Amino acid sequence: MSLLAVREVSKRFGGVNALAGVTFTVEPGQVFGIIGPNGAGKTTLLNCISGLTRPDAGDIRWEEASITGMKPYRIARLGIGRTFQIVRPFPSMTVRENTAMGALFGRTNGRLQPAAALAEADEVLDLVGLGEKRHHTVLRLTVPDRKRLEVARALAMRPRLLLLDEVMAGLNHVEVEQALEMVRRVREGGVTIVLIEHVMSVIVGVCTHALVLNFGRTLVEGPPAEVLKDPRVIEAYLGERYARRQQPPPHPAPKSEANEEG
Ligand SMILES: Nc1ncnc2c1ncn2[C@@H]1O[C@H](COP(=O)(O)OP(=O)(O)OP(=O)(O)O)[C@@H](O)[C@H]1O
Ligand SMILES: [Mg+2]
Asked: Ligand 1: does its nearest atom lie under 6 Å from the Cβ of 53?
């Protein structure tokens, strides 16, 4: 049984076909990478899965039961955690308190005591490398640390499926390596992962499967190394300039927060 099944999902925004009949399945234990050019529909897809956006057509199933159009908090409580490409911390709270929110309102359904939620927070903050900054206010955090906080809050929900939207954007080489290690540890802990990334070393370094979106449609899907070699992918995703060079750049320039979709 697939953990997640996305069937013919479509979403329009005015004249833009953000998603046009996207179909794929995620199996337990996978690290499922989604790549594609800016505006390809990646975040919209995550929004549809997590209930933030209602698809116009198609069906999304979690262990065979439809979750299409379900409220985000209900989907979260089923065990689907997510991060936001535009980070969304609670600005008046510390790193630790922000993370504890995930524990309080995730799968435990509001039944966890605050002290227990803070203890959960401490555990996941160590996992994402924010342990020493647990008492900082979020306003003091750098962008990469805010992305780590997104991951921590999602993990504190104890999800079975974790959806990561460009959490490694803006990280340097060493930080990407640390983030990959974190993804591996999370996966070893039994969490299935769907991740959107522009960093190619992440896709080959940690993903067991890759799907390329282009103009809201699946362009290619399969083992990451094969997908990244596909000429259609090189041209669509990296542009003709890189297609001529015939090899992907290790780190395309990270987008600034200001340019990201909201
Ligand atoms: N709420 C919205 N209202 C109108 N248009 C939207 C909305 N959300 C997304 N779009 C449009 O849908 C298309 C897909 O956007 P989406 O954010 O899903 O792309 P993406 O693949 O995540 O891009 P990026 O790599 O830049 O994050 C884009 O053309 C975008 O402008
Ligand atoms: Mg996006």
From this structure: no
- Residue 241, number of CB atoms within 10 A of its CB: 8
Residue 244 — pLDDT band, cuts 50, 70, 90?
low
Amino acid identity for residue 93 in this structure: M
Domains of the chain: 27-51+70-259 (3.40.50.300)
List pLDDT tens digits, range 87-128: 889 999 999 999 999 998 877 666 788 899 999 999 999 999
Other beta carbons less than 10 A from residue 248's beta carbon: 19
Q: What is the DSSP letter of 254?
A: P
Q: Which has the closest alpha carbon to 152: 179, 192, 115, 175?
A: 179
Mean pLDDT over 74-78 rounds to 94
- pLDDT for the residue 259: 42
Q: What are phi and psi of 105, to 5 degrees?
A: -115, 15
Pairing verdict, β 65-66 and 16-26: unpaired
Cβ(169) – ligand 1 distance below 6 Å: no
As a whole number of Å, the CA-based R_g of the chain is 18
- Cβ 214 vs Cβ 237: under 8 Å: yes
Going by alpha carbons, the residue nearest to atom 29 of ligand 1 is 39
pLDDT (0 to 100) of residue 202: 87
Instruction: Tell me if 256 CB under 6 Å of ligand 1.
Output: no
Ligand 1 center–CA 197 separation, angstroms: 15
In degrees and rounded to multiples of 5, residue 114 shows phi and psi of -55, -40
